[in-house]
Amino acid sequence: MKSFFKLFIVIILFISVFHHPKQADAAGKVICIDPGHQKVGINKLEPIAPGSKSMKPKVSSGTAGIVTKKPEYVLVLEVSKKLQSELKKRGYKVYMTRTTHNVSLSNVDRAKYCNSKKPDLTIRVHADGSTNKNVSGIHVLYPSATYTKSINSKSKKAAEIVINELIKTTKAKKFNGKGLSPRTDLTGFNWSKHPVILPEIGFMSNKIEDKKLSTKAYQQKIAVGIANGVDKYYKNGKK
Ligand SMILES: [Zn+2]
After folding, report:
1. Distance from Cα 28 to the centre of ligand 1, integer Å
2. What is the residue range of the signal peptide feature (predicted)?
């Protein structure tokens, strides 16, 4: 019996020594990924925050690629799946609001789903569109409303770290100079009870960026950039 116990200790020591250091930070951390939009948008309205009289469509249909013609909901699920595997590989527990396009999930539904998982961080993946075809770059949105007072500062911190890591891996431009956009009007933020960020991974209305966004290599750079940011967010949080 004793030798079994010794063997057990040796195995535990072995695992702890050779365990990937990144996984030690990720252990037990829960990430909820919300790939934006879906095949068919829902125009019916829902309140933008609990108790608010201000209403917005339950889920919009999103943008589409100017060259690729790819809908945003397809692109962001491709990237979200890469992010899911990247985070799982690093030891995070990952939940997804959707893994197919044929779903009917409003932004409130998505926030409530993530709330039920008590995530350390929710990542809502979206892509941008602009009437100005020259605009390009990445920015990360974070909540800044009074509804979200309790999660604003942690979300902002995560957004600041994630945008910098995203720029390192993608070499993209920071949209609006800072690459950060505080928001008070997003339903998906206002219903969140846990820190949440929304990376707008690039402009599908920009020819060059649209094409780049659909390549596997660039999508992987986005996934790794966000995952590096998540790792760093926890390391900073530990100090
Ligand atoms: Zn979107």
Report:
1. 29
2. 1-26
